[in-house]
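Example: Gfo/Idh/MocA family oxidoreductase.
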Amino acid sequence: MTDPIGLSPIGWGLVGASTIASEWMIDAFRAQPDGAVVAVMSANAERGTAYAARHGIPRSYDQLDALLADPAVNAVYISTTNELHRDQAIAAAKAGKHVLCEKPLALTLADARAMAEACAAAGVRFATNHHLRNAAPHRAMRQAIKDGLIGTPIAARVAHAVFLPPHLQGWRLDKPQAGGGVILDITVHDADTLRFVLDDEPVEVVAMSQRGGLGQEGLEDGAMTIARFRSGLIAQIHDAFTVRHGGTGFEVHGTAGSLIARDVMTQRPVGSVLLRTADGERELPVSPENLYVRAVRAFHDSVRGTGAPAADGEDGLRSLAFALAVREAAASGRCVPVTLD
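Written out as structure tokens, the predicted fold is:
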């Protein structure tokens, strides 16, 4: 469905006075020629007022209903803690607002599906903020595979073990009820990136998790996963909040060559991709672009009826299914199927 606002600016309401909005998303919204940030909602009124003043946002609300009643708000960006996403997205859909939601969409598949269904019923756009599929190296890898440059992909490896900076530690490390832990925070991103680059679907996983010194209240701060995909490809994934100097990477190995990407599992528009075949090695050309600016542009195109979100609700549902399967596999020691049931 196209949006009735025509060519007027798309006014964004921030649901949550969050760090990610402050560091990345506000600038991404304002980078659009048709984008504006018009309001923010925080349950803490004092925090919301200060946040709005700091970022030049015209209005601050401490109730979601008040933000959704603002006629200048056409779309909402939800970046609250994970257990709040479902009710906030459904309320926004019922108010006729388009929804861009942080990952994971929810804590259960049923809740994520309810969010998607509410947006579909209301005729509003629904997308998941999976930023990594917007990275230039990942797009170059996807195209190289489609072009047959490495033959048939048979294995992949993701290194996404990083150090969670102190200003982000909080609930991710000590609030199970909010959906904390490295699996729902990082593994869920890896699932989407693998699906995007490989154009393939995971079918089963085995995993082990770790508490390496940061996780509290039973939450994991490290995990290693092996996943099998529909094509038969197997992937190895290492995620952590506790690795200070590891660097990130993504490799795909095929029957005729390999793609080796470095420094690519990041929010920043950096990284490189090396193609290695029997003919030797060469670096693939990439055109770096702010990942979030690209994602918001795609969302705006979807609202205008001229494109699709970079990652839609189905993508968010499938990445959540993967993460939940990994969490179950790590807890049970079993091989767990990745299903949408």
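Residues 134-292+321-337 form a domain with the Dihydrodipicolinate Reductase; domain 2 fold (CATH 3.30.360.10).
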